[in-house]
Amino acid sequence: MSEVKSKAEKARAAATALNRMTTEQKNEALQLMADHLRKHQADLIAANQEDLERGKAQGISPSLLDRLALNPQRIESIAEGLEQIISLPDPIGDVLDDFERPNGLKISKIRVPLGVIGIVYEARPNVTVDAAGLCLKAGNTVVLRGGSSALSSNRKIVEVLHEALEASSLPADAIQLIESADRSSVDEMLKLNGLLDVIIPRGGQALIRNVVENATVPVIETGAGICHTYIDETADGAMAEAIAVNAKVQRPSVCNSMETLLVDSRFAAGHLGSLADRLRQEKVEIRGCERTRELVPWAVPVTEQDYATEYNDYILNVKIVDTLDEALDHISRYGTKHSECIVTENAGHAKRFLQEVDAAAVYHNASTRFTDGFEFGFGAEIGISTQKLHARGPMGLPALTSTKYVIHGSGQIRG
Amino acid sequence: MSEVKSKAEKARAAATALNRMTTEQKNEALQLMADHLRKHQADLIAANQEDLERGKAQGISPSLLDRLALNPQRIESIAEGLEQIISLPDPIGDVLDDFERPNGLKISKIRVPLGVIGIVYEARPNVTVDAAGLCLKAGNTVVLRGGSSALSSNRKIVEVLHEALEASSLPADAIQLIESADRSSVDEMLKLNGLLDVIIPRGGQALIRNVVENATVPVIETGAGICHTYIDETADGAMAEAIAVNAKVQRPSVCNSMETLLVDSRFAAGHLGSLADRLRQEKVEIRGCERTRELVPWAVPVTEQDYATEYNDYILNVKIVDTLDEALDHISRYGTKHSECIVTENAGHAKRFLQEVDAAAVYHNASTRFTDGFEFGFGAEIGISTQKLHARGPMGLPALTSTKYVIHGSGQIRG
Predict the structure, then answer these.
(1) Class of domain A227-370
(2) Least CB-CB distance to A406: which of B362, B375, B414?
(3) How do the domains of chain A map onto residue ranges?
(4) What is its EC number (chains A, B) (predicted)?
(5) Which residue in A99, A115, A392 is closest to B377 by CB distance?
(6) For testing the chain A interface, which of B108, B232, B405, B406 should be mutated: the one with the most A CBs within 10 Å?
(7) How many CB atoms neighbour CB B268 within 10 A?
């Protein structure tokens, strides 16, 4: 039997036992996981060093090396992340609905674990711990398939987590790591209907595309964000500038940062020059439509392809529009249904924008950078869903659960 | 452009306009649809006659011909179904959550339509109207792909529905029927990411398998039901007999009927003979394990394959078990996570069964035949989900919706 199948079967078998665990038992295991990670700090850093050296030898980029690196501070923050999960309410067993039928049947809709969750992700080793912790707290076992560049780190992390689970009431098999670096191990996971209940991809566009296009197991799509900010005619100038700059430069590498700024032509006439100067100070390259380039001569010409690109970088498309409808059409055409913002003092325009834009999160007068489980107060986040089924937007613990109807009768039969 | 793509694009374009419609406008359209179906009763029956004649010529089975047939009574009941949908509360716009963050951001989670729903189904023409009505009420446009055996009926039905929509405020393009009988039209629908938001298959196992295995668009899996009834040692004899007989024979052709009866050996010793006689009177063929055949000599031997078969017919597997765990193991191995029942007076056994069995609906002392949107009081049903994402069990209108976070700020930026 392949590594993938045999580990998925172990996770499946452990799911029933995990489902029987109390909140206290799960929290105790999470605390042991945090404690053991702290205790093995030196081992983790040594294993991580192997990944970093291999990465350097293979010439991977400094920014990827940075994401891959573990140090005492990062290990502490990973352990604190587990402690934060302990503090979250356990969603399992929540009664979501409860009613009695005229025939006396008592029907309850109860939150239950999804079962076995597959996570396919890239370089950052902290995802290994975060994802395992969140899945366990929601009563799920997990099959992790991280990037090959972090394999030594992930192997050591999971070894430590297994040691913690052995000391707990939870089945150690609840966390499985696929070690095969071969791409075929991902392909195999995607088809494990019956063993995996859902797959969540976390990473770049190519990784997510591969999962969405090839999985027969249900998928929660996460990630891609071509987010827009539309500055309406009546926007407050200072507010619009602050929101646009924040949405672009506060952290350009993430999915909720802005890629295209749409500006009403009347607002642009008075304010675009100074806003562009401010962005230039922040080292942002502007790619502008023709009308933008009349007001911002140093902007380079924008292309259709640019409008459809998630830069995750210090690059911004700027387009001048004459109406709200033009802005809505542009967003409908190029947006990825992630996060979209209107800056306006016109309540009617705000209302139309919030209703008509089809996205996980729509903002009036606030930066798109807030689309995040922590910023929303969920206390944790397994990712940001950009699909419409099951969960949409930042996903906290309830997104890792399903439901079950429990029916109590006294001999009812159907007539 | 292909028929499938061009119709999906029309449905996509109509989705925005539909999203703006009020509950009153949607209900008015549903009433017009019901009225027009009644008015065109003779045309509908004439079109259906073509399907029936072609079906007879092709030698399709009498039971399929029966499911395909329209008559005045069935058309009236289809129209009444639309009127029932009018009476259901409109889920769109419901505020599911509403909170303010310390930074002053006001976040609401609002119910919104999914957008464009694809339905792939088989012979029964009433599904064309039911599905269109439910999708529209939940603010979705719909792309219908019915079986080729009902094509004349479906074409006429959709012509009548379009006439009704023309007289309403809703966009007529909200309902699209794929007329191509070619299997490739289904395959094309399954890959229309960006145009279709979800696909719901309704029909037999082969149809559902094809959709689940080949779709890149998110799918809500419905249908297959290998349902078990477990009669525990302490079951009330008369209640157990009534529930078992009802679960098997009240309507064997549907997914929530029982395929395998598991009987505790001590209960079997006292009651299985008479229960089997009762089933024989109802023309049920029993396929039994060896111990069953000692008590029921006329039972034929059951095979592994039988345990894994959804008969949808007057055939029942019977297996004697010695413990609750043995019953749980059997269900975990052969069940399809649809509906499972325990008949017992032992509260501890009931509790374990209800918690440990992983299924959409778990019953204590009631027939599995109740897993149904109408029986649950949802007033309608688009199908029964057997997957764990998004919706599980009978799906009413809320299963046809998504959510959106709407965020009101006053210039907040992320620090």
Answers:
(1) alpha beta
(2) B362
(3) 3-221+387-408, 227-370
(4) 1.2.1.41
(5) A99
(6) B405
(7) 24
Q: What is the CA radius of gyration of chain B?
A: 24
The CATH architecture of the domain made up of A3-221+387-408 is 3-Layer(aba) Sandwich (3.40)
Residue B230 near residue B267, CB atoms below 8 Å: no
Are B388 and A413 an interchain contact pair (Cβ–Cβ within 8 Å)? no
pLDDT at B289: 98
User: Are B405 and A412 in contact (CB < 8 Å)?
Assistant: no
φ, ψ at B312 (rounded to 5°):
50, 45
Mean pLDDT of A101-107: 97
Q: How many CB atoms lie within 10 A of CB A79?
A: 20
Tell me if B115 and A393 make a contact (CB, 8 A cut-off): no
Question: A126-137 and A72-87 helices cross at what angle (nearest 10)?
Answer: 10
Count of all residues that appear for chain A in the document: 415
Of B198, B377, B407, which has the smallest distance from its Cβ to A389's Cβ?
A: B198
SS3 letters for chain B? Answer: CCHHHHHHHHHHHHHHHHHCCCHHHHHHHHHHHHHHHHHCHHHHHHHHHHHHHHHHHCCCCHHHHHHHCCCHHHHHHHHHHHHHHHHCCCCCCCEEEEEECCCCCEEEEEEEECCEEEEEECCCCHHHHHHHHHHHHCCCEEEEECCHHHHHHHHHHHHHHHHHHHCCCCCHHHEEECCCCCHHHHHHHHCCECCECEEEEECCHHHHHHHHHHCCCCECCECCCCEEEEECCCCCHHHHHHHHHHHHHCCCCCCCCEEEEEEEHHHHHHHHHHHHHHHHHCCCEEEECHHHHHHCCCCEECCHHHHCCCCCCCEEEEEEECCHHHHHHHHHHHCCCCEEEEECCCHHHHHHHHHHCCCCEEEEEECHHHCCCCCCCCCCCCEEECCCCCCCEEECHHHHEEEEEEEEEEEECCC
Residue in chain B lying closest to A198 (CA):
B389
pLDDT tens readout for residues A166-214: 999 999 999 999 999 888 999 999 999 989 999 999 988 889 999 999 9
| ipTM beyond cut 0.90 | yes
How much is the pLDDT for A330?
98
- Please report residues of A whose CB lies closer than 8 A to that of B247: 413
